[in-house]
């Protein structure tokens, strides 16, 4: 189940890779599998986006990979950090990895921070654990970190508690704590979803700046393709616990090669171009205990044919560094390319070869 | 023609207690004016805490205003909760973000769609209440088989459809939607946006559509109002307003939206958080974050005035046009 991944030819192992990784949750007597064999690679310094609707397994994949889900989550496959399998790590070594080599931030910063400890204590704890800093040295570094994440008046903030700070400020504090261990990669799960638009823009810029300064890698989990497009070099689209498409960001957005990705893009309202009726993907993500046979997207797919229900489609080449898991890939690529040629110039250049079978039903809403 | 909804100088303040027990006034809404015609959609955008939801509650008379006047179909709206208010409330409905919170988990969703007909003692015309509710199930795209289900047995998108069916069962003229799709996934959100548009085409109600999502508002609104700290700072047709914003706050808000289209677009990043409405900055409330602020901005409040055809803005730097040239 290994596939060629762009940039993986060099001698040094990738920073982080998942190989045929699965996650199941104990449920009653049995188990429900929610992640079904994922292969993903993150090169040193790379920014990888993970996109998909809720319940597709985006968060569970990374939480389970870092063994943050406890005993109820059972995993198989391998998680390699610099070529070393995390399954061989002791709890102690793992604790060093989390917050050390790998920084983590989540959607709701205020509930991730300890409500009764001062901000300074929490940053100090991370500095002690991962850098061995204490006393004056730790305090100096904490001040530098708060300054780095753009928090003014740092000495006063260190003495405050999470509830005294805004959501945007708390997310900056979470980033400061993540940076305390000087991580090689930041795993950010919906880091701006709970924030207002202008604050989201601040946080996205901050993450971009830090990456420019430190070369830190990024795994950005988001339901928002706009946010992913903003920060990521490469994108993996997840559906029902599998990666269904992966490509460089521009390629994925410019010429999506999986019906689900095309569906997500066609469903997005836009600020630019003419107002056209949206083309939703019908239905919803299947629940893990009621997975359709064969291609899990088939019940919602406008291109599905009878044979889509026979066996699970595997990722196959769909362009340079571009993989798509669709049984009808060859036929559809031809169809999409012909449509793109026909429609060239008629649509927003970014989605110009994006076409959905019932596009002609779209009507101009602006009149 | 009198507008369906006419809001004049609306204000609402809350008394809040400070750390040392002292009293402050929080001006959630502070002098808002707008009109909404029958069958049209006014979108209201702005960041959390700017007064969008308070405006919604005031319009529905769910909460008393501290100043100003609201008229609905020519009659004053007051938060008196008497028979007059109830009769009026029948014609104005509300849909909000969390459909699960809006529904009663102990009743089937079918019963909950019938319920308003019974509360208001309506027969629903020639149909029985059940027939009427089933007709609305069909209109919002729910199968009749769903009628006997309980809220937790439905998906988020289906629940929001139930909430819509219940809002529409009384045939309202106005539906106030407060972040109705914010909790939904991309594809389901698109289904609900299309549904809202189809239902408006079919039943002709007006929407007051509140959202923090500019793209969604652009998709659905005929007119957009941008709020900042309790006031409207810019208003106009969606495409004009989002493509050529006049107010520096609208400009920053638009440029903050990450899009799949323009990757290397220059972004205006505003410093700091929106200020607390308890200590609203003097002059233009946006001045501490405004990249263009000048001396006058710190002392004088810019009025909301016509700046182009069909466009209002409240900024000292945007020249006003006279009413006549605005209409030309
Ligand atoms: N603790 C848990 N126990 C059982 N199932 C879970 C648990 N956490 C998540 N799941 C299920 O795993 C699937 C993937 O969830 P998640 O990774 O949160 O998706 P995403 O991040 O893409 O929204 C979902 O079906 C979810 O209901
Ligand atoms: S395999 Fe079939 S059902 Fe699945 S995405 Fe491709 S065309 Fe659609
Ligand atoms: S009035 Fe001044 S501070 Fe306010 S938006 Fe205009 S330029 Fe900025
Ligand atoms: Mg998630």
UniProtKB/TrEMBL annotation, chain A:
Classification lineage: Bacteria, Pseudomonadati, Pseudomonadota, Alphaproteobacteria, Hyphomicrobiales
Key word Membrane present: yes
ABC transporter domain sequence ranges: 16-265
Keywords annotated in UniProt: ATP-binding, Cell membrane, Membrane, Nucleotide-binding, Transport
One Pfam family hit: oligo_HPY
Stated name of the protein: Peptide/nickel transport system ATP-binding protein
Xref: PANTHER family: DIPEPTIDE TRANSPORT ATP-BINDING PROTEIN DPPD (PTHR43297:SF2), OLIGOPEPTIDE TRANSPORT ATP-BINDING PROTEIN APPD (PTHR43297)
Family statement drawn from the similarity comment of this UniProt entry: Belongs to the ABC transporter superfamily.
Location within or outside the cell: Cell inner membrane
Gene3D superfamilies membership: P-loop containing nucleotide triphosphate hydrolases
Keyword Secreted attached: no
Main location: membrane
Entry superkingdom: Bacteria
Topology term for the membrane: Peripheral membrane protein
Region (Disordered): 343-367
GO biological process: peptide transport; transmembrane transport
CDD domains noted in UniProt: ABC_NikE_OppD_transporters
Molecular function via GO: ATP binding; ATP hydrolysis activity
UniProtKB/TrEMBL annotation, chain B:
InterPro entries reported in the protein's UniProt record: AAA+_ATPase, ABC_transp_ATP-bind, ABC_transporter-like_ATP-bd, ABC_transporter-like_CS, Oligopep_ABC_C, P-loop_NTPase
Recorded GO CC terms: plasma membrane
Major subcellular location class: membrane
Matches recorded under CDD domains: ABC_NikE_OppD_transporters
Record's keyword annotation contains Transport: yes
Subcellular location: Cell inner membrane
Annotated GO MF terms: ATP binding; ATP hydrolysis activity
Annotated PROSITE patterns: ABC_TRANSPORTER_1 (PS00211), ABC_TRANSPORTER_2 (PS50893)
Bilayer disposition of the protein: Peripheral membrane protein
Coiled coil: none
Claim: Nucleotide-binding is one of the keywords in the record: yes
Any single biological process term in GO: transmembrane transport
Pfam family, one: oligo_HPY
Similarity remark: Belongs to the ABC transporter superfamily.
NCBIfam families xref list: oligo_HPY
Name recorded for this polypeptide: Peptide/nickel transport system ATP-binding protein
Protein species of origin: Chelatococcus asaccharovorans
């Amino acid at each position: 189940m290994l596939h060629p991944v762009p940039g993986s030819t060099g001698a040094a192992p990738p920073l982080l890779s998942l190989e045929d990784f699965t996650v199941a949750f104990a449920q009653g007597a049995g188990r429900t599998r929610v992640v079904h064999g994922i292969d993903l690679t993150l090169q040193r310094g790379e920014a990888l986006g993970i996109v998909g609707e809720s319940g597709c397994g985006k968060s569970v994949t990374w939480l389970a990979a870092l063994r943050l889900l406890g005993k109820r989550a059972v995993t198989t496959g391998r998680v390699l950090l610099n070529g070393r399998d995390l399954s061989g790590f002791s709890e102690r070594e793992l604790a060093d990895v989390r917050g050390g080599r790998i920084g983590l931030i989540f959607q709701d910063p205020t509930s991730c921070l300890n409500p009764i400890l001062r901000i300074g204590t929490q940053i100090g704890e991370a500095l002690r654990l991962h850098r061995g800093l204490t006393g004056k040295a730790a305090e100096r570094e904490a001040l530098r970190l708060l300054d780095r994440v753009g928090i003014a008046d740092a000495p006063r903030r260190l003495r405050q508690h999470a509830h005294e700070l805004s959501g945007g400020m708390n997310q900056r504090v979470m980033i400061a704590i993540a940076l305390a261990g000087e991580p090689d990669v930041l795993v950010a799960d919906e880091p701006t979803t709970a924030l207002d638009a202008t604050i989201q823009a601040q946080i996205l810029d901050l993450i971009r700046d830090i990456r420019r300064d430190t070369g830190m890698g990024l795994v950005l989990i988001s339901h928002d393709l706009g946010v992913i497009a903003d920060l990521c070099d490469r994108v993996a689209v997840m559906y029902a616990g599998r990666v269904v498409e992966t490509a460089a960001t521009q390629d994925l957005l410019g010429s999506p090669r999986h019906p689900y990705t095309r569906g997500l893009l066609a469903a997005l309202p836009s600020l630019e171009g003419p107002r056209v009726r949206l083309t939703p993907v019908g239905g919803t993500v299947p629940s893990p205990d009621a997975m359709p046979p064969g291609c899990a997207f088939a019940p919602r797919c406008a291109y599905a044919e009878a044979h889509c229900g026979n066996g699970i489609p595997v990722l196959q080449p769909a362009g340079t560094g571009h993989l798509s898991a669709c049984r009808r890939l060859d036929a559809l690529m031809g169809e999409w390319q012909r449509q793109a040629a026909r429609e060239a110039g008629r649509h927003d250049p970014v989605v110009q070869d994006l076409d959905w079978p019932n596009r002609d039903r779209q009507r101009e809403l602006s009149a | 023609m009198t507008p369906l909804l006419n809001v004049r100088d609306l204000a609402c303040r809350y008394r809040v207690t400070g750390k040392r027990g002292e009293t402050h006034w929080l001006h959630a809404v502070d002098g808002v004016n707008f009109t909404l015609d029958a069958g049209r959609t006014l979108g209201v955008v702005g960041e959390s805490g700017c007064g969008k939801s308070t405006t919604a509650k005031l319009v529905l008379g769910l909460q008393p205003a501290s100043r100003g006047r609201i008229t609905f179909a020519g009659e004053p709206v007051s938060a008196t909760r008497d028979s007059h208010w109830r009769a009026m409330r029948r014609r104005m409905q509300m849909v909000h973000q969390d459909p699960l919170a809006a529904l009663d988990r102990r009743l089937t969703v079918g019963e909950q769609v019938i319920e308003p007909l019974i509360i208001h003692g309506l027969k629903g015309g020639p149909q029985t209440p059940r027939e009427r509710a089933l007709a609305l199930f069909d209109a919002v795209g729910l199968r009749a088989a769903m009628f006997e289900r309980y809220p937790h047995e439905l998906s988020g998108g289906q629940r929001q459809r139930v909430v819509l069916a219940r809002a529409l069962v009384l045939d309202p003229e106005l539906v106030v939607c407060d972040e109705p799709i914010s909790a939904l996934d991309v594809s389901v959100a698109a289904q609900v946006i299309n549904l809202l548009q189809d239902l408006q085409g079919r039943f002709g109600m007006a929407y007051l559509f509140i959202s923090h999502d500019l793209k969604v508002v652009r998709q659905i609104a005929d007119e957009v109002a941008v709020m900042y700290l309790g006031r409207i700072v810019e208003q106009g047709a969606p495409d004009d307003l989002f493509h050529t914003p006049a107010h520096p706050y609208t400009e920053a808000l638009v440029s903050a939206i990450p899009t799949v289209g323009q990757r290397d677009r220059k972004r205006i990043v505003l410093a700091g958080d929106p200020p607390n409405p308890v200590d609203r900055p003097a002059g233009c409330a946006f001045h501490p974050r405004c990249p263009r602020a000048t001396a006058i901005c710190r002392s004088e409040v810019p009025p909301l005035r016509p700046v182009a055809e069909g466009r209002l803005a409240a900024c000292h730097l945007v020249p006003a046009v006279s009413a006549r040239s605005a209409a030309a």
